[in-house]
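Can anyone check this?
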Amino acid sequence: MMPPRQAWRLLRIARVLVRYRLDDLFDAAHRSRLLAFARLVLPRAPASISARPRGERLVLALTGLGPIFVKFGQILSTRRDLIPADVADALVTLQDRVAPFPGELARAAVERGLGAPVGERFAHFDDAPLASASIAQVHAATLPGSGGAAGREVVVKVLRPDIQARVDADVALLRALAGAAERFHPNADKIRPRDVVAEVETTLEHELDLQREGANASLLRRNFQGSDDLYVPEVVWSHTSRGVLTLERVHGIPVDDLAALDAARIDRVALAEKGVRLFYTQVFRDNFFHADAHAGNIWVDPERPHDPRFIALDFGIMGSLSERDQYWLAENFLALFRRDYRRIAELHVRAGWMPASVRLDELEAAVRTVCEPYFTRPLSEISLAEVVVKLFQTARRYELTLQPQLILLQKTLLNIEGVGRLLHPGIDIWAIAEPVLERIWRRRRGPREVLKVLRRRLPEWLAAAPDMPLLVHDYLAQATRGTLELRIASDDLRRLERRTRNGQRVAVWLSLGVSLAVAAVLLAVAADPGLRLHRVPLASWLAAAGAVLSFRAASRRAGRYKDKGDLA
């Protein structure tokens, strides 16, 4: 039975959903009966609410439900392959800003996390937060000590009190709501609400571990050490734990404050082009990218107006790809730049993102249908992120299996392109992206990189080398004795095995049917046929019946496997 507190929370959620008339997010023919009943007993929405678009009403509802639901909406806004564009556009406006908690609670959390009084670990700790969000808030502080570290300015990020319990409770309710959505929403199989909630849960788990965030910041800083394009603040590990993160304090201009950027004489065109290059560098050079790169997490260094660089903040959500996905994604981007639609279709299937049963000519035509209208416009007016989203939406009709890391990458591309166009509306994303990707990818696949991989793997091969003669000897001995077994682990090989085995069974039934049919004919003309039925020997009738049954068995077995896709 549901605990009273959780039941009350669920009732409040239902009240908010009805108040903002969010039942029209469901198809008219598939509305929840619970919501329909609630509309009869709960107050009507004011005209100021009912007249708003559904996306705005959803933003108001999530804001009213609290910080965890705001986080859910932010993550949902990235799933443009699943939700309508107007809803996604509205969810982008969700701001993760909530009322701060008292400074004495922050001090207590720091003391628990660092195991010492605040006065011992910091020369000064400001009780008033610099910023407050749903998961944590940030305080300014200075480090004690002597020498260069004395008086060094830092920022201290502290988790909210009891945030773990609140996250657990609200995630449990989100799971319940996802179950209801799967039951009542007509497009639940495409939206996959349970998967979206699982993604929210994973994201929140990562954000609740501030030591993990510190490790992310440390790696990103190492990747761009001495870079003229990106600065990452240093982690103060002596003052960091799972619940407390201390970083070097940086000063900059928010990337969306165009007036301040212009006042500082920042070259916005150069900055926008650097943003695009940074995306491809992080993804394809380092395979580690900032996956929450919205305007609030990106500042600009005001000390470098003519050669500007970004300052990265908030490292709770980072992304990386497997080498396999990285390869297929890079090849897909290059094929898209060259308008090679056949190549895009082939890559999607070969990458395993789509079933091998997809017809390449149909998929190629679908990709061409999406892309060609865009290329009638100047490249500077084409949104690469929009094209990628449309391709994902089209591919989903062909049973696209989209991995979470690719969703993060799509979100990052949308953010980076949005920042680039904000800084320089006429930026040609394609002209900047193609040579950068080709240069990075050529270097990654070049002889020097291959030699580096070989050097890295050579010790493993040398360690395994002494065992190789014995393994070869055992293999040959088993082959000689006839005890060598082939274990099928590939799905394709399993299908091939089933297809072969089934083909053998079909052949047996067909052979039996043909044999019985021949026997029926021979018995019909035999000199001493024995008993007759309608002038046809009874034995001939029996053989013919057996032949018919054999042919029907062969037909049924062939049809059954063809329906399952196991026959070509």
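Reply from J.R.: I decoded it. DSSP finds 24 helices and 13 strands in the chain.
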